Amino acid sequence: MADLRSGLRTGLCVLAIMFSSAAVRGETLTFAADEWCPVNCAPGSEKPGYMVEIVTAILEPLGYEIRYQQINWARALLLTRNGQFDGVYAGTPEEAPGFVFPDAPQGEYTIGLFVRAADPWTYTGPQSLEGRSAGLIIDYSYGEAIEADLQRYSEITYTGGARALEQNIRTLDRGRLDLIVEDINSFAYKAAELGLTDAFRLEETFTRDSLYLALSPAKPGSQTIAGHLTAGMQELRSSGELEAIMRKYGLTDWENQTLDDGQPAID
Question: Where is the signal peptide (predicted)?
């Protein structure tokens, strides 16, 4: 591990020279998001989230000080768009139109449909959603097709706040929802944390797409940071540090990740 970190620092020093507009020493960047483990978890914890660790590993050697503030997702987007934060963890172009995005992603998600393990219902297409109560999170993007199907056929309950996913999982467990649509790794991580791993099953998967540190359109340095992140992802991957970070969360590099029989990729 020491050799990997040494190689990463060397590579990032070279990148710092390549960028003529390199980071101002001591410049503080504050990124916000709600809790969405394992992508971004509790600030300051031993496991703050794999995207938090990836971004920190790339930007801190370039002279930036990284801070992470946890607030609800809708407010994180609003305040970042206005320039009060420098970026949001785990953003997508659909959720954050007009934000500045690196060319290379800092994560990936796969949207799945979860039901209680004892529920005999099966997904056979959009019409099978008719009459089913579904739990979604306010201002999250799940993919146009599944969102349209849910809007047409299901009764949707939207949840907000810092513990929205936990609330949806507990509500599903109590039988007050029929299904939840959520990133499969995040659902598996939170269900395990709540001791409810065996209470649910993954019934279907839908959208699989990239996640980014989405940067504020109001900040003049956003394009520079996006460039650092794009170059830094290549260095992290080639050095092996990216794989080391992912394994800390029971995952693998998403470029090498496959889903077997629709099961969550988290160990």
Answer: 1-25
How many angstroms from the chain centroid is the CA of residue 209?
Answer: 10
Q: What is the pLDDT of residues 225-240, one digit of tens each?
A: 999 999 999 999 999 9
d(CA 10, CA 247): 23
Q: Give pLDDT tens digits for 29-81.
A: 999 999 899 999 999 999 999 999 999 999 999 999 999 999 999 999 999 99
Question: Nearest Cα to 61, choosing from 247, 228, 219, 226?
Answer: 228
Burial class (CB in 10 A: 0-12, 13-18, 19+), 27: middle
Specify the residue for token string 């963890």.
89
Domain 2-108+209-256 in this protein, CATH class: alpha beta
**Sheet strand arrangement including 200-215:** 65-70, 28-33, 87-91, 200-215, 107-116, 179-183, 133-137, 155-159
Q: Which amino acid is at 165?
A: L
Nearest-angstrom CA–CA distance, 133 and 215: 35
Q: Which fold has domain 110-208?
A: D-Maltodextrin-Binding Protein; domain 2 (3.40.190)
The domain ranges of the chain are 2-108+209-256, 110-208
Q: Are 51 and 75 in contact (CB under 8 A)?
A: no
